[in-house]
Amino acid sequence: MSFFEKLGINSAEVSIDWELTPADTFGMFESWGGKERVRHKSERFYYFYIDNWQPPARLYLMERGIKYARVLARIAAPQEKIDKCIAGQGKATTLDASYAIDEDIRNWLQENVVDSKDQSLVIPMEAGPEEDLLNTGLPTPADPHPALQTKTLRSVPKAFKEAEIEGLIQEAVLFERRYNPEAGAEKYLVDNGDLLTVSDMTANLMWERGGSDINSIRTIQARAKELNANKFAGYDDWRLPTIEEGLSLLERTKNDKDLYLHPCFSKAQPFIFTADQRDPGGHWFVDFAQARVFWASGFNPGGFGRVCRSIK
């Protein structure tokens, strides 16, 4: 049995792209095939990469396509090889803690995984259960609630340089795993009873529980306008959140959907656009899977969308 077959994939139809790196995929899939390798939306690419978001660093197999990304398996490679690979690359790329494999790991993979009949080193990543957005377990706005310490978060979009982000997060006293890991993540969510929204009474923000599929910033912005035109959940003042507003949703621990969010929110939006731009170029995102802020291009496929509105 090949390792692809262990993962339920027809090995005759796919192959590993050994030259593909995390940095390459950013360019390819943000610009719809910028390297002239993507021929159609259903095409899939398979490559190994190292994830160093949190220790210990791990080696993974990724399946990637336009508007599609899924980690298929963790590979139980020797930790010393993984750590040596990271050390040899120095500072991470724009993708922050995602690293390309080196020749040593490639040779090890070829011998011990790709060409091996023993697939004990391949650990499939289990798909999460189908989510249910019906029952939140949250109080309603009419229920008694404790005395709350409210906070005012910036709601007007701005452009920020990378060097400004750490100070911005710390000044707002918001939890973020890289820049402010010791901060709290206090909030008081209530279920608005419409199956569509919840409100954070500490930040005076109403949030969409679901959101949009991955798309360009223009499409995400157009969707917000459409939601307003159709009075989504009865309101016409929905907008993309600022960095601070997006971070205010973070929880300090992951839920059973593998996100740093209250489970009332959909798992289909693991990271979202904010309304803030990056100076000199790009857009700022909040990543619920890593409890981090990052920047990237705002174009295809871009990112996911989740709107909010201020509660007057």
Could you explain how this protein is built, in words?
With 312 residues, the protein is of the alpha+beta class. It folds into two domains: 122 residues, no CATH class; 152 residues, Mannose-Binding Protein A, Chain A, CATH 3.10.100. It contains seven helices and 15 strands. The strands form four sheets. The protein has a five-stranded antiparallel β-sheet. Strands 6-11-12-13 form a four-stranded mixed β-sheet. A hairpin with a 4-residue loop joins strand 8 and strand 9.
Describe the protein's topology:
Elements: H1 3-6, H2 22-30, E1 45-51, E2 58-65, E3 68-75, H3 79-89, E4 98-100, H4 103-114, E5 122-124, E6 159-160, H5 162-172, E7 189-191, E8 197-200, E9 205-208, E10 212-215, H6 217-229, H7 243-247, E11 271-278, E12 283-287, E13 292-296, E14 303-305, E15 308-310
Parallel strand pairs: 6-11
Antiparallel strand pairs: 1-2, 1-4, 2-3, 3-5, 7-8, 8-9, 9-15, 10-14, 11-12, 12-13
Q: Which tags fit this structure?
A:
2 domains, four-stranded mixed β-sheet, Mannose-Binding Protein A, Chain A, alpha+beta, 7 helices, 312 residues, elongated, five-stranded antiparallel β-sheet
Query: How many domains, in number, for the residues?
Result: 2
- Amount of helix: 10-25%
Number of helices, where a helix is a run of at least 4 consecutive DSSP H or I residues: 7
Strand order of the largest sheet: 4-1-2-3-5
* Mean pLDDT level: 86
